[in-house]
Amino acid sequence: MSQRVSMSKKHTKSKQNKTKKVNHTIKPPFPIDVVYTWKGEDFSDNIRYSYNYELKYSLRSVFFFAPWVNKIYILMNKAKQPSWIKENDKIIILEHSQTFPLKDYLPNYNSNAIETTVANIPGLSEHYIYFNDDIFLGRKTSYTDFFTSSGKAIVDINTLFNKNTLKNKKDNILDIKFPPNTYRIYKHIPIPQIKSLVLEFNKKYADYIHWIRSTKKRKLVGFGMCTKYHLNKPCQQIHYPIAKYMYSKHKAVLKNADDMYIGNTSEDFNYKLKEILYRKPLFFCINDRETNLSKKKIMLKLLVSFFNKYYPKKADFEV
User: How far is residue 117's CA from residue 94's CA, in Å, rounded to a whole number?
Assistant: First the structure.
């Protein structure tokens, strides 16, 4: 009974959020870009690389619910126009060789390493929002859902959490300077960042960034490196360290996001999709965790049906 009451309260709160009028056409006082990192149209049982149509619908969510976005960058290993995108002025596709500073880091399949290079994108605005391809906007947004009017980044409230980098403080096998961290995986939500501070962070912790970029492959969640070097997990994800750095520079504010996260291996996957349709959270993530190809095909049908209900219209960028 208590669980049903709790769900009811959540639904009531979400309906209040849903009915709150947001003027999503107001132009921000500064340009704000969006950045995706993407493997490409590769259907497989590899949960790190498999494509499930997510990017197309995530882009739709940005086009319809955040039309104030300036440019959208898609960072790939090898730049290749997706089959469903036509030439347009808003979406720019580029490859790792344009953001990694050294050829020795390439080819690179470690998402943590690739994410350290986002701020190196040529022409990227000072203010940008980092998306994974499985993250979506659930309703109309304002730029103030990501940045304050004065340009401060709005970051997850767990940024305040602190935990030691090393499991044993005396056991720094890598002998490098680590940034303050929370040692939690950042919430699966869009991540606002300020380019000049990210570049400043990368320079201050250059040895740490070099170590991440030198790790060219990542298995599953990528915790193997943490265990190997006696570090708390996750040891290579930079989102919380950067958020903490921006906050320490008084360039970030804290907020608890209205979001939902589901994995496609969940027994109640279809119910959860229906719950997202009902609640319409500000952000949601549908994470691919299924390695069984036959099960993946079943889940994919449910997913595509859901996407077409949520985002029924094609965007201008689509063929």
Answer: 12
